[in-house]
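User: Hey, quick favor. My workstation is busy. Could you predict this chain's structure for me?
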Amino acid sequence: MSTIVSDPIRGTSEPDRYWTSTNLGEACPEVMTPMCWSVWEGSAELGWLYSMSAFGVIPRKKVVVSPDVNERGLSCFYGRQALNVDAIKQIMAALPGVSADDFERDLMGSVRADAPQFPTSYARLPVLMVKAPWALLRTGKRLRKLHDRMYDKWLSTVYRGEAVDTGQRPIDLLVAAREDFIRVFSVHCVVRFMFQGGQSAVAGAAAAAGDPALATALLSGVGDVNETRMADDLWRLGRGQLSEEEFLSIWGYHGPNEGNPYTTVWRENPAPIRALARASADRERPADRAARAQAAGQEAERTVLAATPAIKRAGVRWLLRRMRNIVRTLQVGKAAYLMAIDECRWAARKFGAEQVRLGRLQAADDIFFFTIEECRQLAAGDLADPQAVVDARKATRAEYKAMVLPLSFHGMPELIVVDPDIDRDVATELTGAASGGGVVEGRARVVVDPVQDVDLDPGDILVCRFTDPSWAPLMALAEALVIDIGGSASHGAVVARELGIPYVIGTESGTRVLRDGDHIRVDGAGNTVRVLRRGAAARTATA
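Assistant: No problem, here it is.
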């Protein structure tokens, strides 16, 4: 008799619910395993609700995960995360002066003609007036303290293995690691919300000064951003100024697809950083590129302030300095939650190894095909035929990896089978959801797999589906960036602005339309990517 195996990553939805996968692929790329989703599921929901509570938009008692997935702000379909647009709009309507439709327009580019209406409410205004300033003043410092505590724990427990034996079982370590992730990610979401509001204010200041294009330069070169420091440390590693052990003890929690706990990071396999260090050693130092971007940002600030009425100058100056601090803090928060995910990864593999010793699993990494709740059952010996569950879920996930979600859908989505050659000979120009920088022409290097071995020559343009912090060293070698997934607050945009690299992000199909070796023009100011000459042959690797 065969075992009926449930599918935790398939998802479910009522027919009238409107979902979008826009802007979610960067945090947790590729198709999640059940373990990945059980780390992210409640954490992401609690995180965004906590940010709303921190500003007073909703009362603290509403920061709970609804038992009805249709009422949640986030869910999972075929291993990919998606946003419940109307559920989020309904909460956003409690922000005075903010239209719920503005959220949909910013996210999707337009508003559905039949979109439900959520009138702006002023009922929470007194609470907002008290809580919002408090959140603005204290959250950055709080997140940095959380980061420092998380780093100390990661360094001693995960990287060095120096933790004192407390008698905790591996399953207890895994549950505790998820709690660390929830704690850090919730506060990170508050800063993410600050960034969105501050970015709109900066764009308004640039427009009022008569040049909306200055908004990108105003957010460039903020200085002391984690990913540019990492790229610079890799350059130092390549020059022999930093040892591999020193580099890994600071940045070892990064690695390909690092938002998914099942992946392998640099502390476990340092081979990728060795290749990147060799490649970057003879190139311009990232710190020097960042210094030029910082000078450009300061020049943009002077231009905007000179065009701003004197009575408003102090406010604009405060806004710009505050936003630079928010950009730095946003990357600190991302580092903290990635360390928490690496703690989950470490604990899961310890638990998986234990289950192999007990004869319940064939390989330690099979553990990633169970949810954490199922892991508790497994630890108690209450999960029937665990290897059959693993085998069935591996096969299902392989099917999902061959397909993609539509950007938006009602109810359950119909997965799209992607032809990698579609439109390659038709589309010659792309646009994105966000862009910035100048104009660059060069050779497209299409990288669809973060573990793909690729050498970027001077002048090459990196074309990829998404980026996370582990991509920063490779991005530092590129002349420009073209990215399928992301927006103005995404990791790729932040790093591009810090290094002064032209970028077009959110093209959706750049890795399918562009061929490896094409000669292309990236116009950051004009938000276009144009094929000038097709390469002789496509050398793109398959995912």
